[in-house]
Design brief:
It is a single chain. Helices cover 20% and strands 26% of the residues. By secondary structure, it is an alpha+beta fold. It has a 6-stranded mixed sheet with strand order 3-4-2-1-12-11. A 6-stranded mixed sheet has the order 5-6-7-8-10-9. β6 (92-97) and β7 form a beta hairpin. The longest helix is centred in the middle third of the chain and has 20 residues, at 115-134. The relative contact order is 0.16.
């Protein structure tokens, strides 16, 4: 299964890029974050990509927002879409697929305006993962999680003690979530690579210099019949400050 995630930083600005990329690479599951569109603004967008079951979770003020797209050829029956109880500001949508598989598109708060809300959200995600596993399910959780796991996930020139996204308490909550039998696919397949980044500050050619952070992830359940066989960052796709991440999961 090919699973892709992308923080588009505004679907209306990158609608054509999104459609071109998805039709080119044909992922089985696509997770988008920060779509920044109201339900009314998404009216025409809902007709895009008829080859996918799509669920757009846009807020009333066009802030935040996520979406989830499931390829009909791979999953002929429309999945059950929903949201966990801790979802707020339209930050989580999940789909229940056959064989007990749950896929989720997640946009963790940045924390700049309300850092405690970010910590509560990260803590709630651990309970969410535990609940799916306790019920006998398996999970693919993808999205902009707004935490660089370690200094290896931040370019040396971008490492800043106390910077939100690099703080010890949020990193600890991220690791606690991973301890619930989740695997960080990119890091599992390439554990020592310090040049894997998914977001770059949008100035001074940072993307071209690859001076960024790794804050977009594909996480999969371990020990439940799933195995990740590949993961790549598509740094040449689109004009968002984030790049798509694509993983292969068997």
């Amino acid at each position: 299964m090919k699973v892709a995630t992308w923080n588009v930083n505004g679907i209306r600005a990158r609608e054509a890029q999104f459609v071109e990329w998805v039709r080119r690479d044909a992922p089985d599951v696509v997770c988008l974050q920060e779509i920044k569109a109201t339900p009314e603004q998404l009216g025409e967008t809902l007709t895009m990509l008829p080859e996918y079951w799509s669920y757009w979770h846009g807020g009333p003020k066009g802030y935040s927002g996520v979406s989830l797209h499931v390829r009909k050829e791979r999953f002929p029956a429309r999945p059950e879409f929903g949201h966990p109880e801790f979802d707020f500001e339209c930050r989580v949508v999940h789909a229940r697929l056959p064989a007990g598989l749950v896929v989720a598109s997640v946009y963790v708060p940045n924390g700049g305006k309300d850092y405690l809300a970010k910590l509560r959200f990260l803590d709630a995600m651990r309970g969410y993962v535990d609940g799916i596993h306790a019920a006998g399910g398996k999970l693919i959780l993808s999205g902009d999680l707004n935490v660089a796991r370690s200094d290896l996930d931040v370019h040396p020139k971008e490492r800043k003690a106390g910077a939100i996204g690099q703080r010890p308490d949020e990193r600890e909550l991220f690791e606690r979530m991973l301890s619930c039998d989740l695997q960080d696919v990119a890091r599992a397949l390439d554990p020592d690579n310090g040049e894997i980044f998914t977001w770059w500050p949008p100035w001074r050619g940072m993307r071209q210099k690859n001076q960024g952070w790794r804050i977009d992830y594909v996480l999969v359940s371990q020990g439940r019949g799933m195995k990740a066989t590949g993961c790549k960052v598509l740094a040449d796709v689109g004009t968002s400050d984030h790049a798509p991440v694509v993983a292969m999961v068997e």
